[in-house]
Specification:
The complex is a heterodimer of chains A (439) and B (143). By secondary structure, chain A is an alpha/beta fold. Helices cover 31% and strands 24% of the residues of chain A. Chain B is α+β, with helices and mostly antiparallel strands and 143 residues long. Chain B is 34% helix and 39% strand. Chain B is built from 5 helices and 7 strands.
């Protein structure tokens, strides 16, 4: 039985009621965080804000921001608001400078998150009639678990494939008649190509829709995926810090993602001044989680640049919509769905005896990211053997893989050959931009 | 005793060989022998020249990435079986040859062979004991 909404009372709540609900939840949540998270209490005290100063969402701007650096500094338990015995799970983001962000979940946190994912699946046309093939990675990454949980909540027959092993993915897709697909957009493209190579046409599979996220993609890619698989392709947005995928999701309109405003308040700020910008402005997206118990997030700066809008949506949902992220306000790159910071690459280079003179070259070939790093050798004599140089490249590549979670192709180059601007090597050439991919 | 070989790290880009050969020509240095080892991304251009130190300076000031490697040089009669003899001596003593290349000069009845091995001294000692004539820097300059 197909429903239009997973939780209609929340998803179609009148805007005034959303505001009222957010006001009430915010006042409680700030008191809860102030009492239970010393790290954030110190930030509030430093800013001279007390919980009683927060009477509703208008007062949100008085509160201090949380940044990724705070999460690193508070690693691992500094932002935990509950006893560990009340937590049931940990997830983690891909790391930065050796320290990953770890997020904790109580059972209520997991339920909230999975309900958000369930809303996304239903908004994309999913129901208990569907066979939902989840080929996001399972494990510390939130993609697999989030959509898996959402699929269960909707009542889909869930196929927990995890990522990789494309032949098996295709075999199960065809033999078990998957109707709904959850993975990264680049993997969806890859599956499409593989199906074609195996001689299947788009009509041969039973898929009708898919939810694709965790990496930037374009409208062009959406059309390609829809054509190759014969489906409707929907976007989803989320962060491990806030729960995981499902913070926002697309509806049948496919024109922006509805933010689950009963659980999250979204603000757009000027990334330089921190000033809150009016609705419709382009700026950095900031989230306050209203219900999280284990790992609360108040005014968390996502570093994603986007625009919010509250025009009436034909799907009937009243939640504010966000555009696809249009860029980053920091130097983070998203490569094959994994967050990569230049600082991580520098750490690996220094640990392996190289100076941080490198250049990252990103491109997209057949809808999949290519990731190359040119690294300058030291000025001392180089080994007079391609075998040894290639072995050194391989060693560095393995160290990068261990730090980043993805494999770059390393190219050792002669000293002082990477172009410099103002004495500093030009760090990044992102050729993906020519396809309209902005992060 | 060893002979100095110039190795130049060359990225697979247009014009790189021009830079190298120009630099050597302008410094008035003769190339006696060369060999190239390459991979998909880069190559190592190896040269035996009349004046390795001067070549290094000239190349480095043209922006080339250079290192000098000691290699074993031998002078053998330019006739069938000579090279086989050298190689079999080394094989008998379990000395691995990483790479080698040979060159002949017009006026003499001898061919020269450059050998890259892990332990130059050991290889040289064995070759001399087996009656093989080694090449020296001054031989190359005088060729």
């Amino acid at each position: 039985m197909e429903n239009k909404y997973f939780q209609p009372e929340a998803e179609t709540m009148p805007v005034e009621e959303i505001k009222k609900l957010q006001d009430e939840k915010l006042v409680k949540q700030i008191r809860y965080v102030y009492d239970n998270v010393k790290y954030y209490r110190d930030l509030m005290d430093k800013k001279g804000v007390k919980p009683e100063d927060i009477k509703g969402t208008e007062d949100l701007c008085k509160l201090p921001f949380l940044k990724k650096d705070d999460l690193r500094e508070a690693y691992p338990y500094g932002l935990l608001a509950t006893d560990l015995k009340d937590c049931v799970r940990i997830h983690s983001t891909s790391g930065t400078t050796g320290k990953r962000v770890v997020a904790f979940y109580t059972q209520n946190d997991i339920d909230m998150w999975e309900e958000c994912c369930a809303r996304a699946i239903v908004a994309a046309g999913g129901s208990s009639d569907d066979v939902c093939q989840v080929c996001y990675g399972y494990g510390l990454f939130t993609g697999g678990s989030g959509l898996h949980g959402g699929s269960h909540k909707v009542g889909c027959l869930t196929l927990p494939m995890s990522s990789g092993n494309t032949d098996r993915q295709i075999q199960f897709m065809m033999d078990l008649g998957s109707t709904f697909l959850c993975c990264t957009p680049s993997y969806a493209s890859y599956l499409g190509e593989n199906l074609k190579e195996k001689g299947y046409s788009p009509e041969d599979n039973k898929l009708k829709a898919g939810i694709f996220g965790a990496e930037p993609w374009t409208e062009e890619m959406r059309r390609d995926i829809e054509k190759a698989l014969g489906i409707k392709a929907y976007d989803i947005y989320g962060l491990t810090e806030l729960s995981g995928p499902g913070v926002a999701y697309e509806c049948s309109e496919q024109s922006g993602m509805h933010i689950n405003e009963d659980h999250f308040i979204a603000e757009i700020i000027d990334p330089d001044t921190g000033e809150v910008l009016p609705l419709g402005s382009k700026g950095e997206l900031v989230f306050t989680a209203l219900d999280k118990e284990a790992f609360p997030m108040i005014r968390y700066r996502t570093r994603d640049i986007c625009v919010l809008s509250r025009e009436k949506c034909s799907c009937g949902r009243t939640f504010v919509k966000m555009t696809k992220p249009m860029g980053r306000s920091d130097d983070m790159m998203i490569i094959r769905g994994v967050n990569v910071f230049p600082s991580q690459i520098e750490t690996v280079l220094l640990n392996n005896g190289y100076a941080p003179n490198y250049q990252i070259i990103l491109d997209r070939v057949n809808n999949s990211d290519t990731f190359d790093i040119n690294v300058e050798m030291g000025t001392e004599d180089f080994p007079d053997s391609p075998k040894i140089i290639t072995a050194k490249e391989k060693k560095l590549q393995d160290a990068m893989k261990a730090m980043l979670g993805i494999n770059p192709k390393i190219h050792l180059v002669a000293p002082k050959t990477i172009p410099r601007s103002e004495g500093k090597a030009v760090r990044l050439i992102d050729k993906r931009r020519r396809y309209g991919i902005t992060i | 005793m060893a002979v100095k070989q110039i190795s130049i790290f060359v990225e697979n880009k247009e014009g790189k060989l021009v830079t190298i050969t120009d630099a050597i020509a302008k410094a008035g240095i003769d190339i006696r022998a060369m060999s190239v080892a390459d991979t998909q991304d880069f190559g190592i251009f190896r040269l035996i020249v009349t004046d390795p130190e001067k070549a290094r300076e000239a190349l480095e000031s043209s922006g080339c990435f250079v290192s000098i490697t000691n290699v074993v040089g031998v002078s053998i009669p330019d006739e069938p079986g000579s090279l086989a003899k050298v190689v079999s001596i080394l094989a008998r003593y379990n000395i691995n040859i990483e790479y080698m290349y040979a060159f002949i000069t017009i006026s003499k009845k001898f061919a020269s062979v450059v050998l890259r091995v892990a332990d130059n001294e050991a290889a040289e000692k064995i070759l001399v004991e087996n009656g093989i004539k080694l090449l020296e820097e001054k031989d190359i300059a005088a060729m």
